[in-house]
């Protein structure tokens, strides 16, 4: 019945674009752009309209339909779907562009590179090798009209209309007649002069046509066959092999496989990094993990010379797959972010951001530090909810890590994350960690960078947090035994000068700065005098004209003002360009090198460290660790390891009393029973691995004697009570970072005892600040010894209980076997 009839074209799951056909190749087919109705994904649709009296052309089109449907090869046009009716034929393939149109567009954009062309010709030759050697088929239509290019720049062989078997067809006839002059001009001369098939190989005709294709790729459309004698713009490394293809003797023309082998020889046209990369990507699934690691490490160096479309559509999917299923790890990060530069904002959100979010939950330390180092490349694509709920909770674990390099990179990353943090994470959680780092971290560069970072993000804090935190934090920094930290405190005051009231400037800040005018380090004194002059000029202007008070204090009680901190930092000139830090270099020091002589410490030169202090870093330049970087010799050929004791020697004997006090406080901790705390410790372990747990000992560890100066950390003690660290946890300062192991390990606090030959500090301000800290040394040492004895007694009790239980059960019985 008529109402059961359906239109197959209307029900076809693909639809043609209303745009006119694009550059259709010569032949019976018209190429249209299309899309899949369900998903909207782009495709190419080859359409043949059946015409009356064209039965021969219809048979050719149907034969091509069948061939394309059954042949599957990476270098042959990929068939997706098809439709065959009495009126038309539709063949749906991957979205492609005719080679002629592609080369024309590339010429308008500056021309295709030899790398692109070498890989494209490699693909066509490989497709011909597959047809001739594996399928015994003659393509019979190789040329520009039969080659198509997909969105990744991959060349695909199509135009299968006139293909025939190498053994001959069933009727014993020769190759099918084309009847299209544009296609017949690529036929070899032996077919034109009727010399027959005798004396030539089965691939001879297709290799002649491949030579014509090479000539057209480099020189444009072929006007006549005689033009093949002049290579024109064909590269010199390809000319000898090209001449073999267009030789008059058909038996001399090489097999496609041998042609590829010749071109891939050292110094050949197809012997380059681009072809090697593509060949590796085609076989990446069967490569060994070590080979993949090496490949991804070297890939970043080559991406700059690769075509953009190739990076986006071929390299990027392989990188994502390698991370998702191949356990490639941190090695994929550098090429991944490099390829990400070619993506639009929408594509970046869809393809890379989900991977980045997943990477932040990784327990691999190498992955974490690579992410922190390269955060600048993807931070602009992260929205605030993602940062606060999925990234920041993982990043803050880096503040507690036992590796100083990770703690340092975590501090640096806050400069990028701060503008996207919510009220709680910025003003509560982050300030709590900063207070702990500035007061208790044993690495001077990390304390210095924490102070610098706080000055840069001060404008993002709320008004109440700024009032409570900034002046106290910078005041504490000015009493740090590490000279660059004191300079950072002074510059922090200067960078946030607009965030203090006039009363605070006069009563809180200037007294602190005046005390630094007699600092033993000249760089500290110089910066102190500059800051004092700035604050005095501010006070003088208000004194001369009291009406300016409102204008001067307009930012004091204002809400967070992004951008003000950056302007203040530029005015203060407080950051030195440079990305290598003393902390990282200490960790990377070779353990087998000779230790540094304590008698000749290599103390960082503050004058050298801050000679460029008036230079303002450009956008995206982190220069905080540069404050501490001059501590290492610049021309040293072998890095010299610096142990914790050597660090203390370089800082001077002023830390002796601090270390002794720290040892006493460490011993006062109530450790309790490890067995009773086992379950709670396991419950506290997070997905960052052992680093977070071990670092809890550092949180409750040895505070510096100068941590009592200032009060900004006290506000957070109620929110986050310190947890006792498990027994056996050691501070980062107690590890031997490359020196010889001490022979006497009986007393764990021996390294912290007062050195008998220590010389007193040459300055006078330290005596007042450290006064009274050693008054209760004897009582603290007694407490430490008592706590150690209690732990030893508890251990012996537990061992006795285990022995009793074992004795009650009796000896274990061994099984016996009855022998027949």
From TrEMBL:
Basic and acidic residues compositional bias, start-end: 648-657, 777-787, 794-807
Matching PANTHER family: N-TERMINAL KINASE-LIKE PROTEIN, SCY1-RELATED S/T PROTEIN KINASE-LIKE
Source domain of life: Eukaryota
Gene3D superfamilies: Leucine-rich Repeat Variant, Phosphorylase Kinase, domain 1, Transferase(Phosphotransferase) domain 1
Sequence ranges of Pro residues compositional bias: 18-28
Family named by the database record: Belongs to the protein kinase superfamily.
Protein name per the record: N-terminal kinase-like protein
The species this protein was found in: Erinaceus europaeus
Domain Protein kinase: 14-316
UniProt feature, compositional bias: Polar residues: 695-722
Function field: Regulates COPI-mediated retrograde protein traffic at the interface between the Golgi apparatus and the endoplasmic reticulum. Involved in the maintenance of the Golgi apparatus morphology.
